[in-house]
Amino acid sequence: MRTEEIVVVGAGQAGGEAVAALRMAGFEGGVTLVGDEPHLPYSRPPLSKDFLLGDVGTEVLLLRPPHFYEKHRVRTLLGRTVTKLDRDRRTITLDDGGSLTYGTLILATGGHARRLRDPMAEAAPNVHYVRTIADIERLRPELVPGARLAVIGGGYVGLEIAAVGRKLGLEVTVVEAAPRLLARVAGPDISAFVHRVHTEEGVDIRLGTTVTGFVPGDNGRVTAAVLADGTTVGADVVVVGIGLVPRDQLAADAGLDVADGIVVDEFCRTGDEAIYAIGDCTRHPCAEHGGMRRLESVQNASEQARVAAAAITDDPRAYAAVPWFWSDQYDLKLRSVGIAADYDQTVVRGSLDEGRSAAVFYLKAGRVRAAEVVSSPRDFGAAKKLVAHRAEVAPERLADLGTPLKDLLTSR
Amino acid sequence: MPRIVFVQPDGSTQEIEARTGESVMTTATSHLVPGIIGDCGGGLTCATCHVYVDKDWIDVVGRREGPEDEMLEMTSEESNEYSRLCCQIVVDSSVDGLVLTVPASQE
After folding, report:
1. Distance (Å) from the C-alpha of residue A332 to the closest C-alpha of chain B?
2. In which order are the strands placed within the sheet that holds A91-94?
3. The predicted structure's pLDDT at residue B64
4. Pick from B45, B42, B46: which is nearest to B24 by CA?
5. Which of B74, B77, B91, B106 should one mutate to test binding to chain A, selecting the residue with the greatest count of A CBs within 10 A?
6. Which residues cross the membrane (chain A) (predicted)?
């Protein structure tokens, strides 16, 4: 086992899990965790839900309490940005001029919210993004009852913000460039289901149009978004959720292979034997469909952290976990497993046209390859197994709410 | 501080000082208890913090119910009437001495 210093760049979900996984695996050498936010590793999913609502405090978000890092000898350098990676000297340079030498480097740099290319919006105090605790602390005071909230982007983040907005009594409009909500992360059936629920909850949804500019108001604020279809959306506050850009520049500048994400193999190794990369910032092999993919998810970050730690501690095991994702909106618990990219049949379980619970399964050659489950923990638990086993099922039984899904597992 | 005992499948034990107010999952992951993963951070989504509560303690911490009960139907190691997802057990003085057995796998 290597005993020289391991430096982890990035103190998010992936970086936080990596230091824990290294210690869990028995690594005894030095571990340093560098993060550009002033916080110990914390959980981001609540940012757009309970944390925005003010229901939980910062300390509840932490993946592990401060005493963990002391007890397990993890040196933390927070509020520090890495400005340079020198692979020949195995050294990283920090923004305060300091430097660190590593034996092994783990890049867990995550991503940043994709920005609007609009100078007025960039400078406006009432235009917001959702990625960090600081983003939410800036946004929260603006979400006051009766205010008009314009959400740009109808993905998970945008729709979670829309749901919080309605809960807090704001007038909410969602603008999405694609012809349907959740176009990047869900199938058309679930998009329609979610669209219906948001409409029932009073959200004004504008599809297939983009924001072309903003109407300026006092003090640099914007007062409306101007859409490509010629209409405007009045707004007291704007939240932009149009995706994530992987932070791969440090790796690219150091000559590592980068292609919309740092390219790694199934052991999270880059082309440099001393450097691993994990989490949202990576492009990695897709065990489900072949080729390479990039995932923005907690589970992927944690799994890659464990895979990298295992490889570093001489117990390599290839990344093979089936990806899953979640989003909470109103009373909806949206859960998906697998990637609905390559299928020849969809099976709906329950009703998409009414109510608040349903599921959609994606099959190829009669085998379950992916599933989206709304508000049924029981069916989601079973769906994970069906997808993991690529279970061969009779579609009519899958669709039948009277048939427990676990029966389909045992009758394989 | 309340003390919680984690028993591994091989019979080895770890006794840990937990912090009042945190979940038992956080207690476990903060002390690197093997076999407690908790990927979803306590959101009743991943079911990777499954534990078997010692039968003398089950009425103190309460039994599985609701969404947690549903999630426990599909754990990698078969759940039973003493199974809980430990993200749903909050540490307070009543759990001082709590004994939990960690299953052989979580996924």
Report:
1. 13
2. A82-86, A91-94, A99-101
3. 97
4. B42
5. B74
6. none
In the sheet with A204-207, reading across from the earlier edge strand, the strands are A127-129, A237-240, A148-152, A171-176, A204-207
Contact A64 B26 (CB under 8 A): yes
Residues of chain A contacting residue B39, judged by C-beta atoms under 8 Å apart: 298-299, 302-303
Nearest to B41 among A23, A43, A68 (CB): A43
- Domain regions of chain A by residue span: 6-112+244-312, 115-240, 331-410
pTM confidence score? 0.96
The domain defined by A331-410 folds into Enolase-like; domain 1 (3.30.390)
Chain-chain contact of B40 with A326 (C-beta, under 8 angstroms)? yes
CB within 8 Å: B26 and A376: no
Q: Is B47 on the interface with A (CB under 8 A)?
A: yes
Q: Tell me the CATH number for domain B3-101.
A: 3.10.20.30
Q: What pLDDT does residue A123 have?
A: 95
Q: What is the pLDDT of residue A412?
A: 44
Domains A6-112+244-312 and A331-410 share a fold: no
Q: Which of B31, B45, B73 sits opposite A335 (nearest CB)?
A: B45
User: How does pLDDT run across B76-87, given as a tens digit for each residue?
Assistant: 999 999 999 999
* CB-based contact, B41 to chain A, within 8 Å: yes
Backbone angles phi, psi at B104, to 5 degrees: -70, -20
Q: How far apart are CA A152 and CA A174, in angstroms?
A: 6
Q: What is the CATH number of domain A115-240?
A: 3.50.50.60
The ipTM value here is 0.95
Q: Do A385 and B22 touch (CB under 8 A)?
A: no
CATH 3.50.50.60, applies to A6-112+244-312: yes
Q: Which of A42, A50, A56, A68 to mutate to test the interface with B (most CBs of B within 10 A)?
A: A68
Are B74 and A67 an interchain contact pair (Cβ–Cβ within 8 Å)?
Answer: no
Cβ distance of A377 and B26 shorter than 8 Å: no
Given a cut of 50, the residues of chain B with pLDDT beneath it are none
Alpha-carbon separation of residue A250 from A83, A91, A140, A246, A390 (angstroms): 7, 12, 32, 11, 38
Q: How far is the CA of A320 from the CAs of A6, A253, A259, in angstroms? A: 24, 30, 21
Residue B73 has its nearest CB partner, among A23, A324, A406, at A406
Is the CB of residue A40 less than 8 Å from the CB of residue A66? yes
